[in-house]
Design a protein that fits this description.
The chain has 864 residues and is an alpha+beta fold. The chain contains 27 helices and 31 strands. The protein folds into four domains: 303 residues, tricorn interacting facor f3 domain (Immunoglobulin-like), CATH 2.60.40.1730; 134 residues, Neutral Protease Domain 2 (Neutral Protease, domain 2); 93 residues, Sandwich (Immunoglobulin-like), CATH 2.60.40.1840; 131 residues, Peptidase M1, alanyl aminopeptidase, C-terminal domain (Zincin-like fold, Alpha Horseshoe), CATH 1.25.50.10. It binds (3S)-3,7-diaminoheptanoic acid (B3K) and zinc ion.
Length: 864
């Protein structure tokens, strides 16, 4: 029975199986915006055509907008309100619908639709924001040619941008002006965009391989102009890369990117007018870390690549989201791999898959790469859709080989250009071009859960044979109790422990059944198994490899990922044993780390990754019940011992990477990374001079990577004096720079110190803290909730703090609030006491008056 006070109407699920082609199409639209932050008048003229023989009305979505007038073919008409907008009964096959509505950008705190950000007016429409701008069949399979006229106050909004190519501009009476834009490529409404503001551009010309000139511009506010060169360079590099690697050329005369400070996620691929969260555009050495530089290039590339994988070929419905996102992430990952160290890039990608997607896949929000239903589509922009989706594409590329994969991609673009496609269309193109049967492989799209593979290698020394016994299982996930075996492409190779040489070539094994045996002949010596090389399948592999085997692979495997992985496994085995028994033999890890540090052939960037211990939460993911304190203590003990025992080596590595004047290159980045990782170990050793070394690095750094690396070390383990001094200097140095202040907040929220929660609560009352800006909300609340030890304080104070913030944030911005729910939903992984406290907070959120659909879905599923 519904509680009368909290009568939440359970929102209706949207199901993939209910898909029906649109009843009406909209080949053309003319939009006229009379822009004003308080009240913008939007006039729309839709030419609509009946799709097929039926007598159903046309349904136009509308959310939070009031019609001023609705006319059909020039006459005022009768319309009815529906749950999602309005419906009109139309007599003929083709009509002209004219609507006028008012919208209020400066009251839009959800940041969906038309909103105000730092003096600009801008839009965000994916997935369902266009209906907050005008009445329209807001679904991705309705493709429309847009003509857009913008008018606004010229002094306040001198720049007026929309999709496509500019066609006219001029002055109007009363200090206003106008601009007209035409986008010749039919597109779904989620790709619509406009921007109005006082902006300046960093410009360049790009000549496509067929010789067309494209005017590129990155638009920002004047003080930020000097921080746009990196993004502009990345745009040019990605345009060339897509021509060379995928044969895809840009198709309009202009390509505009605008940076805005208030944005719900990273960026948006609107046709010809990408809108970015400023954190993925602005970069200079003083304010951006190497990680930021890399992220700027990756996101610029990602959004650019969407021009083909997403825009020219779009999604039929939102269940197909991974069609554009998984493929585009795969494309941006390949692009980034080509710009620097492919091995390090693969390590980073796998690390983030394991940090975000594996927990999702084993928790209450697990869903397939192609989901079957949702309440709120915004909740499905997940690591599963993006990152696991990219792994699924990568597996197809591995199985087909580069040439056939390219042929499959060409076929997909040829077949579906200008239309809205499905995941099935993509897989079929790969099958046709690759001459391969992907019937069973399709399970990767429909079955959730991370498959587990167990691998046992048995050597019969007498016969010189070795047998590899493989077994797979797919865990139960919500709504999916029965699982079938999947196709797992596993790259493997055997090495000789004694000869230290490979015993076989690398081979690609396709594990299709629950169990399989692979026979190796002429294995004359004790073999060691290198498996899932390059992380060829996104699975968890369990082997019976000993510490000796893993240490051997960490020094001798020829696949850099497998080498990293062996070290990680060795560290994990050690840490899991330590958590279980209160102590463990640290010897093998110390020796393996020492060998890695001493190997002169290794790239410092690789070394830095290889010697890092797995994170607290990844250690927790290996355990059935997470004990945050025991994990933290075990990890700290190993870090301390590594720091002490290898003290000389860390200092040598630190010094060796010094005198590194800022330069953004893979080599310089690698040295900086190793330097800060070494600093972390020097500090972990408890050396009395550690705080001074960190403070010196903090003060003398000529770049943000070194400065923030030092700040993090000081915040975690510096003396009270050094820590507070550094925080103070940092804060004042960057006062007014929102993106850098975000780092100041998140560094403190991620701190390993005992008083982190108290500090975070204090920071939530800081004058620079606001929930209205998503970056700032994430920098404190989001960062804190992934600080495993502090968030999971046994008294539940961490949970309470996060729940309070989420309730408040939901009133402003449901989409951003809902994204921060998953850490609270992990209660099953904790002891009964913590689980009860987490559930109580979830219940409290669920009972909050006026809870959004976004939050309802995430919280209700998390409690289930
Ligand atoms: N397509 C957008 C994401 C939109 C998220 C909407 N909730 C950015 C991207 O993936 O490229
Ligand atoms: Zn994307």
């Amino acid at each position: 029975m519904l509680d009368a006070l909290n009568a939440t109407v359970t929102p209706k699920a949207v199901r993939r199986s209910d898909y029906r082609a649109p009843d009406w199409l909209v080949p053309d639209i003319a939009l006229d915006f009379d822009l004003d932050p308080a009240a913008t008048r939007v006039r729309a003229v839709l030419s609509v055509t009946r799709n097929g023989a039926h007598d159903r009305p046309i349904e136009l979505d509308g959310d939070g907008i009031e019609p001023v007038s609705v006319m059909v073919d020039g006459e005022a008409v009768h319309w009815t309100r529906t749950e999602r907008g309005i419906a009109l009964t139309l007599p003929g096959e083709a009509h002209r619908i004219e609507t006028e509505v008012l919208v209020h950008p400066d009251r839009n705190t959800q940041l969906m639709g038309l909103y105000a950000s730092g003096g600009l007016l801008c839009t965000q429409c994916e997935a369902e924001g266009f209906r907050r701008i005008t009445f329209f069949p807001d679904r991705p399979d309705v493709l429309t040619r847009y003509f857009v006229r913008l008018s606004a106050d010229k002094a306040r909004y001198p720049v007026l941008l929309a999709n496509g190519d500019p066609v006219a501009a001029g002055d109007l009476p009363d200090g206003r002006h106008f601009a007209e834009w035409r986008d010749p490529f039919p597109k779904p409404s989620y790709l619509f965009a406009l921007v109005a503001g006082d902006l300046v551009a960093n410009r360049a010309t790009f000549t496509t391989r067929s010789g067309r000139d494209v005017e590129l511009a990155i638009w920002v506010r004047a003080p930020d102009l000097a921080k746009t060169d990196h993004a502009l360079g990345a745009l040019q590099t990605s345009m060339r890369w897509d021509e060379q690697v995928y044969g895809r050329e840009y198709d309009l005369d202009v390509f505009n990117i605008v940076a805005v400070d208030d944005f719900n996620f990273g960026a948006m691929e609107n046709k010809g007018l990408n809108i970015f969260n400023s954190r993925y555009i602005l970069a200079d050495p003083d304010t951006a870390t190497d990680y930021d530089y890399d992220a700027v290039a990756a996101v610029v590339a990602h959004e650019y690549f969407h021009n083909w994988s997403g825009n020219r070929v779009t999604c039929r419905d939102w269940f197909q989201l991974s069609l554009k996102e998984g493929f585009t992430v795969y494309r941006d990952q390949s692009f980034s791999a080509d710009q620097g160290s492919a091995a390090v890039k693969r390590i980073e990608d796998v690390r983030s898959l394991r940090a975000a997607q594996f927990p999702e896949d084993s928790g209450p929000l697990a869903h397939p790469v192609r989901p079957d239903e949702y309440l709120e589509i915004s909740n499905f922009y997940t690591a599963t859709i993006y990152n696991k989706g990219a792994e699924v594409i990568r597996m197809m590329a591995t199985m087909l080989g580069a040439q056939k994969f390219r042929a499959g991609s060409d076929l997909y673009f040829d077949r579906h250009d200008g239309s809205a496609a499905t995941v099935e269309d993509f897989v079929r193109a790969m099958e046709d071009a690759g001459e391969i049967d992907l019937a069973q492989f399709r399970l990767w799209y429909s079955q959730a859960g991370t498959p587990r593979v167990s691998a046992r290698l048995i050597h019969e020394s007498g016969s010189g044979r070795a047998v590899l016994k493989l077994r797979q299982s797919v865990p139960v996930t919500p709504g999916q109790l029965e699982k079938q075996p999947m196709v797992l492409p596993l790259k493997l190779r055997l090495f000789g422990l004694e000869s230290q040489k490979p015993l076989t070539d690398e081979q690609l094994v396709l594990l299709r059944d629950g169990e399989a045996e692979i026979l190796f002949e002429t294995v004359a010596e004790q073999p060691v198994l290198s498996i899932n090389r390059g992380f060829s399948a996104p699975v968890v592999v369990e082997t019976d490899r000993t510490a000796t085997d893993l240490a051997f692979l960490s020094a001798h495997d020829d696949d850099p990922f497998a080498r990293y992985e062996a070290m990680q496994q060795l560290m994990l085995d050690t840490l899991v044993a330590a958590v279980g028994h209160g102590r463990a033999d640290h010897g093998p890890v110390i020796e393996a780390v020492a060998n890695t540090l001493a190997d002169p052939r290794l790239d410092p960037a690789f070394v830095a990754e290889a010697v890092l211990l797995p994170s607290d939460s990844f250690i927790g993911d290996q355990l059935s019940i997470v004990d945050p304190e025991a994990i933290y203590q075990a990890r700290e003990a190993l870090r301390r011992e590594l720091g002490r025992t290898l003290s000389e080596r860390w200092r040598a590595a630190y010094e060796g990477a010094r005198d590194n004047r800022f330069e953004y290159s893979p080599a310089a980045k690698g040295r900086r990374r190793l330097r800060t990782v070494s600093l972390g170990y020097i500090a972990a050793s408890g050396a009395p001079d550690a705080s001074d070394i960190a403070f010196r690095q903090f003060e003398t750094a000529d770049n943000m990577t070194d400065r923030q690396g030092a700040l993090t070390t000081l915040v975690n383990s510096g003396t009270d004096e050094a820590r507070e001094a550094a925080l103070e200097v940092f804060y004042h140095r960057y006062a007014g720079n929102g993106l850098v202040l975000d780092k100041w907040f998140s560094t403190q929220a991620l701190s390993a110190r005992e008083d982190t929660l108290a500090r975070v609560i204090e920071l939530s009352r800081h004058r620079d803290f606001t929930l209205a800006n998503p970056n700032r909300a994430r920098s404190l609340v989001g960062a804190f909730s992934v600080n495993q030890r502090a968030f999971n304080a046994a008294d539940g104070a961490g949970y309470r703090f996060v729940a309070d913030q989420l309730i408040a944030l939901d009133r402003l911005n449901p989409q951003t609030a809902a994204k921060l729910v998953p850490p609270l939903g992990r209660w099953r992984r904790f002891d009964a006491g913590r689980a009860a406290l987490m559930r109580a907070e979830l219940e409290r959120i669920l009972a909050a008056p006026g809870l959004s659909k976004d939050m309802f879905e995430q919280v209700a599923k998390s409690l289930d």
